[in-house]
Amino acid sequence: MQNNTPAHINSLAELGSFRTSNPETIKMADGTVLRQVTNKEFLAKAEEDNASDHVMARQSGMSGWVTRDSGQHVMIKLATETAYDLSVPEDGPVAPSNSDTEYAPDDPEELNYDGEFSDRDFDLFADVVGKIESNGDYTVVGGYNDHYQGKYQFGRLALKDVGIGFSQEARQAFLGDPELQETAFQSLTMQNHKTLTRLSAKYRRLSQREQLAILAMAHNAGAGGALEYLRTGKDTADGFGTAGSKYINAVRSAFRGGEA
């Protein structure tokens, strides 16, 4: 453990360097298996600790590891209070948020998927996600330091995934352009859809409406979180404690309600 654990992961850039020099998982002497922290997990924990009133939250730092079974962070005690750097490097070894599945092996079962969702189903799915995230308000900003933007609460990494910057000007333009927000949401959703289609035979066998329910979870937990749910049935939770299953159940309920 000592050879693989840095003094403290303080930024996404440091996390990227950590990933390139460490294995995906390690096994402790007591049998506990640790895996690398994803970008989404790092930002959620960093935002929570930066905003915390508790001194201990700012006198401990992420090691870069979480327990594989429970997702609990392995923390390192620091000598002084230290705030996390939440900036996203323009260049460098940091992978975008959708890369939380980069180490997942392709599913060996080759199945074909016939492709597109109906416009009506997709619109209902988008409406459900938008209501959970912002009550459908395109102008909302939220989270620590106003990190999340618009109807679908896009953060830095999600915006980067769809080719949108995070400067003040870019954020204001994004908030003032509902059409751009809808396009970004569709693009991110289809990125997650392609990832899950590639990695999960179970996902490919689902009905299109059930796939949309899983994609709602992926919007909150990332494709990696949704993939883990498909493989193990384990629910996810974001940095604010919101369960990924909340999104699944909301989409299922909307479809059952005969609204589409």
How does this model look, in words?
The chain has 260 residues and is α+β, with helices and mostly antiparallel strands. The protein has 10 helices and 6 strands, in the order H-E-E-H-H-E-E-H-E-E-H-H-H-H-H-H. It has helices at residues 12-20, 39-51, 55-58, 119-134, 156-161, 168-175, 178-199, 201-205, 208-232, 244-256; strands at residues 25-27, 33-36, 60-67, 73-77, 141-142, 148-149. Helix 9 runs antiparallel to helix 10 (244-256). The chain is globular, with a radius of gyration of 19 Å. The model is unreliable at 1-6, 90-96 and 106-115 (pLDDT under 50). Residues 87-107 are annotated as: Disordered.
How would you sum up this structure in a few lines?
Residues 87-107 are annotated as: Disordered. The chain is α+β, with helices and mostly antiparallel strands. 47% of the residues lie in helices and 9% in strands.
Oligomer: single chain
Q: State the total count of DSSP E strands.
A: 6
- How far is it from the N-terminal to the C-terminal residue, by CA? 52 Å
Major β-sheet profile: 4 strands, antiparallel
CATH class of the largest domain: Mainly Alpha
Could you report the average pLDDT, rounded to the nearest whole number?
82
Radius of gyration: 19 Å
User: If helices are DSSP runs of H or I spanning 4 or more residues, what is the number of helices?
Assistant: 10
Helix-strand sequence: HEEHHEEHEEHHHHHH
Q: What order do the strands of the largest sheet run in, or round the barrel if closed?
A: 1-2-3-4
Query: So what's the overall shape?
Result: globular
Give me the CATH architecture of the largest domain, please. Answer: Orthogonal Bundle
CATH topology of the largest domain, by name, is Lysozyme
Q: How would you classify the helix and strand content by structural class?
A: alpha+beta
Helix content: 40-55%
Domain module tally:
2
Q: Strand content of the residues, in percent?
A: 5-15%
Uncertain regions: pLDDT < 50 for 5+ in a row? 1-6, 90-96, 106-115
